[in-house]
Structures are given as structure tokens and as C-alpha cells.
Design brief:
The protein contains three helices and no strands. By secondary structure, the protein is mainly α.
């Protein structure tokens, strides 16, 4: 939920994930969650290659 909030406030997907990982390195997202957050950020998996 925090990731969705950060993306909605304008933080890009990569920065959102870095912020969350630095706060809690044990966070692991499922593929469906990652796909959803990338779509929310207006990115696709190919944008991150």
C-alpha cells in the first residue's frame, strides 16, 4: 500500500522501490504486485531493461 501511495504522489517506480527496500530490506513483492505498481507508475517491464 505504501508503494502505491508513493507512486500516486509522483515518485517514480524505481525510487519508490529503493525507498521501501531501504526502510525494510526484507520486503519481497510478488510478480503481480510489481506489475501492478509499474502500471500505476505508467511504466512497463520493458522500460526497466
Amino acid at each position: 500500500m505504501l508503494a502505491a501511495y508513493l507512486i500516486q504522489t509522483g515518485l517514480p517506480y524505481d525510487e519508490t522501490m529503493q525507498t521501501i527496500q531501504s526502510a525494510n530490506p526484507d520486503v519481497a513483492l510478488r510478480e503481480a504486485q510489481t506489475t501492478f505498481l509499474q502500471a500505476l507508475a505508467g511504466e512497463t517491464a520493458s522500460d526497466n531493461i
